[in-house]
Amino acid sequence: MAATVDLGKEKFSALLVDEKDDRVVVLLNRPEVKNAIDQQMVDELHTVCAALEQNPKVLIIAGVDGVFASGADIAQLRERRRDDALQGINSTIFVRIAKLPMPVIAALDGYCLGGGAELAYAADFRIGTPNVRIGNPETGLGILAAAGASWRLRELVGEPLAKQILLAGLVLGADEAKAANLITEIHDPAELLDAAHSLANRIGRQDPLAVRITKSVFHAPAEAHPLIDQLAQGILFESQAKFDRMQAFLDRNAARKANAANPADGK
C-alpha cells in the first residue's frame, strides 16, 4: 500500500501548492522561464496527483506572473533522445492528471503553448483571460505534440481546427479559443483565480461521489455504454447522499407548494 502523501509536509520548488478542505490550488512556479515544464515540475505534479488519488479533491492549476506555461523546457527537451520519448515523461503525468477522481480546472493566462497547452487539454475545465495564447508549435521545433494534443485536441475542437494548430502552427487568442470551446470563460487577469474558485464552488455543491462516478463514466470508451452507466447508477442508487438529497428536494418542493397555497402563512 502506497504511503500517505501529506501535501503540507512536501517541499515544492517548481510549484506553489495550497491545499484547502475541498480543493488544491497549484501554481506553476518557474517565472524565470515563463513556467516551462521541466522534470522537477513533472515530479512535483506526480506528488500532487498521488495525494489527490488518495484524498480526492478538485484541482485548480494556474501559473505565476501572467503566464500559464510557455511549453516544455527547451533546454531539457533539446537533450532528450529516443528512450526519453518512449518513457512518455510529459504524457504520463498529463494522463494521470486527466484521470484524477475529481475535476481539474485549468486557469489560463498569457502563454499556454506546447506542453503547457497539453497540460490544459488534460483538464476538465479551461477558463482564461484576454491575454491567452494557446497552441502547439512543436512541428516548428522538429518534433510533434506527443503529450496528448495529437489526439485530445481533435476531440476538443474538431479535426479541421486541430490540424490548423498541429500542422500549421496556428496559435489561438482568447476569443478564438472561446469560439472553439477550448476555453469556456474569459475573465480579467485579476479575477481569474476567483473565477476558478467560483467554478470549484459549483462543483462542490454537487454530491462528491456522483461527480467522481460521472467523470469516470463520461471518459469510458463508447463500447462500455450503456452497461457502465447502469452499473454506476446502481452504485449511486444505494448511496445515502441520494436518499438525503432527493428527500431534501421533495421537502423544499412541498414547502413551496404549501407557501403558494397559503401565502399568508409564509409571511
From TrEMBL:
Keywords from the UniProt entry: Lyase
Pfam families cross-referenced by the UniProt entry: ECH_1
GO MF entries: enoyl-CoA hydratase activity
Enzyme class: lyase
InterPro entries noted in UniProt: ClpP/crotonase-like_dom_sf, Enoyl-CoA_hydra/iso
E.C. no: 4.2.1.17
Descriptive protein name: Enoyl-CoA hydratase
